[in-house]
Amino acid sequence: MDQTRLEQKPLDSTFERLFLAHPRDLGTTYFGHMKGAFAISGRMFVASIACFFHAFVPGLFKDAASGTVTELDREFDARRSDMASYLGL
Questions:
Q1: For 9-53, what is each residue's pLDDT tens digit?
Q2: Which pLDDT score is estimated for 82?
Q3: What is the pTM of this model?
Q4: Who is most buried in 28, 58, 60, 78, counting CB within 10 A?
Q5: Which residues, other chains included, contact 40 with Cβ-Cβ below 8 Å and sequence gap of 6+?
Q6: Cα dist. 47→20, 22, 62 in Å?
Q7: How many Cβ atoms from other residues are within 10 Å of residue 26's Cβ?
Q8: CB of 71 closer than 8 Å to CB of 57
């Protein structure tokens, strides 16, 4: 068997596992997943900053973190439900 082919297979498998498998499992592309992850990251970042200020001034941003977490949880549940329906589960 060709030595080059043997050497590339683990690298291809690692690349597949690290960059492509998860987005494909979610029914999106690498860049589609990146866009969604950046959007979620931004929302979590804003909630994190609100929590930081809330720690010092408890009267500020009382529901910012819990509201963001609750919204994200609902959105993730809806995505999982949509994916299950799509897959016929």
A1: 666 798 999 999 999 988 899 999 999 999 999 999 999 999 999
A2: 78
A3: 0.72
A4: 28
A5: 72
A6: 29, 26, 11
A7: 14
A8: no
